[in-house]
Amino acid sequence: MKRIFFLCAVILFSTSAEAQITQEVFESFKLQERRDIKYYIPEDYSPEKKYPLVVVLDGEYLFDQVVANSKFYSSFQGTPETIVVGVFQSQNDLRWEDCAFEEASGLPAEKGKLFFEFLGMELIPYFKTTYSTAPFSMFVGYDITANFGNYYLFKEKSLFNAFISISPYLAPEMENRVPSRLSEINQQIFYHLIVSGERNDSRNSIMELDKALKSIDKKGFNYSFDEYPAANEVSVATYGIGKAWGSMFEIFKPISPKEYKENILTSEEPVFKYLEDKYNSIEELFGFRKEVELNDIMAIYAASRKKDDFESLKPLSELCKQEFPDTMLGFYFEGEYYEELGEGKKALRTFEKAFAMEEIDFLTKEMALEKMDALKADFGF
Fold this sequence. Notes:
By secondary structure, the protein is an alpha/beta fold. It has helices at about 60-75, 95-100, 110-130, 145-150, 175-185, 205-215, 235-250, 255-265, 270-285, 295-305, 315-325, 330-340, 345-355, 365-380; strands at about 5-15, 20-30, 35-40, 50-55, 85, 135-140, 160-165, 190-195, 220-230. It folds into two domains: about 5-250, Rossmann fold (3-Layer(aba) Sandwich), CATH 3.40.50; about 255-380, Tetratricopeptide repeat domain (Serine Threonine Protein Phosphatase 5, Tetratricopeptide repeat), CATH 1.25.40.10.
C-alpha cells in the first residue's frame, strides 16, 4: 500500500549535516487521517549498521526525553544508537481515542483497533523498510498510552522486545492478562514498570501487576520495577525514563561488578557459557556481532580462577586469539589451562608464545617469564 508523507517541518535539531530530528505528517490509510510524527536519526547513521527502533506515544512530551537518553547512553555507556519515532496525540485529546478500550472486555475500542494497525502495519513497516533497523524494537508510553503497548504482547510474536510502561492506566484484567501472556510467550522480552508516589485509582492494579511480574521465573523475561515516592503523575516520566533506558540495554553494556557477583559467581554453569550466551543474545536482539569487551574477558577470567573452572580457560583463550590477536591474552590463558592440567611441556611452549606478543591490561612479559621459570623448576626442563 502506498504511503504518502507530507513535510510539515524540516530538520529541527542538528549537530552535524547528517543529524536530524524531523517533524512530518504521516497519512494513514488505516486511520483515514493525517498524523503528526517526529523522528530522530542518529548523527552518524549508516546503512551498514543496525539501529533499534523505539516507538514513543505521547510524543509531544516524551519524545525529547527519550532521544536525550538515547544519545547520552550511546555516548557514555556504550549502548546502541537508536532510531526514535514519536507519535503526537495531545491535540483534541487524541490519546484517549487512539488508546481507548472497552470497559467490559478490556480490549481496544474501535478507534483503538485502527490505531493498533496504524502502528503495526503502517508506521513501523515504513521505518523498517526505509532505514537499517535491528530486530530489537521498544515501546514507550505513559498512562493510557502505556496500557496500549501491552496489546502487542498478545500477538503470536510481539512487535516489540522491550516496554517502558510509565504509570499505566490499566484496562480491566490487564494485571492478570499481561503476566499470564509473558509466562507463555516464546520471545525475549524486557519490561520496565514505573510508578509515582501518588495514591490514585490505578495504583492498586499497577502494584498487583508488579507482584505478578516479579513471580515469573522464565529465561528470556527481564523485568524491572521502579517506584519514585517523591514524584507525582506528571514528573514521574522525567524521574523514570533514564533509569529504565539503562535497564533496557543492560545486556549490551560491559559486565558490571553487580552482574559479576550476582549472576556469574552464583551460576552453576561453566563460566565461559555466560559470556557466550551474553554475546549470542546481543547478536540475536540487535542484528550484529558486538566486539567482545576487554572488561568482559577479564571478568570471565577472574571468575574462572575464583571458581576453579579451569575448563573455561580453553575456550576463553581461543576467543582472545580472535578478538585480541596481537596480544598475550590468548596464549597466556591457554598456558594456564595446560598448567592446571599438569601438561608442563605444552604450558611452557604456550607461555613462550605469549612472551613474544604484546602486553595488555595486567599481563606483562615479566609474568610470562615467571611462569616459564616456574615450570622449568617444577618439571625439571
